[in-house]
Amino acid sequence: MILYDYYRSSAAYRVRIAIALKGLVVERRPVHLLHGEQRDPGYRAKSPLAIVPTLQLDDGRVITQSLAIIDYLDALKPEPPLLPRDAVLAAQARATALSIACEIHPLANLRVIEALQRQFDAKDDQIAMWRRCWITEGLSAVEALIAPPAPFAFGAEPSLADICLIPQVYNARRFDVPLDDCPRILAVEAACAALPAFMEARPEAQPDAE
């Protein structure tokens, strides 16, 4: 399998965590978003939205969207599971992951920022305020959604919720979003930091890191 990703993409970061947790070996091919490589016709044939990550299977078929890729990996190698076995906890973990991937992340991703700059002449300080606003509001909601750390977001083992949360926390720190009011999130972050899978997936640990 081949994973097309970008070291600082939080969506790709999620998939790298899942790959590491599953102990899978996947070839990585970086797609530099700031250089516009995602708009190359060859890559766009794989990812019509011109986004990362994209997973190309050994038979040539492709899967886009991080949560769909993670779901495939979980089906491909069921152990360790990426959702709690309890049905309610599994639904809550999935809801938390979706809150991050669908409600927080899209508002501050590269395509939105470029549109704000191009169409509305948004300045750097305005972009910074925009990012901090939506990340702060979103993580405040996630803080209320997750269960008291035990030690992860929904139990004794990391789940899809943690896989999505850690890249978003990375973004919060990158954009100077304070996390003092998020003790549960900080506790989950500390628990994840003790696992090699999360450390291996960090943006600064990737070969294409700048």
UniProtKB/TrEMBL annotation:
GO terms for molecular function: glutathione transferase activity; maleylacetoacetate isomerase activity. One of its GO terms (biological process) is glutathione metabolic process. The keyword Transit peptide does not apply. Gene3D superfamilies: 1.20.1050.10, Glutaredoxin. Its EC number is 5.2.1.2. Pfam families: GST_C_2, GST_N_3. One of its GO terms (cellular component) is cytoplasm. Keywords: Isomerase. Residues 86-210 form the GST C-terminal domain. Residues 1-81 form the GST N-terminal domain. It is an enzyme of class 5 (isomerase). PROSITE patterns: GST_CTER, GST_NTER. Belongs to the GST superfamily. Zeta family. PANTHER family: MALEYLACETOACETATE ISOMERASE. This is Maleylacetoacetate isomerase. The gene is maiA.
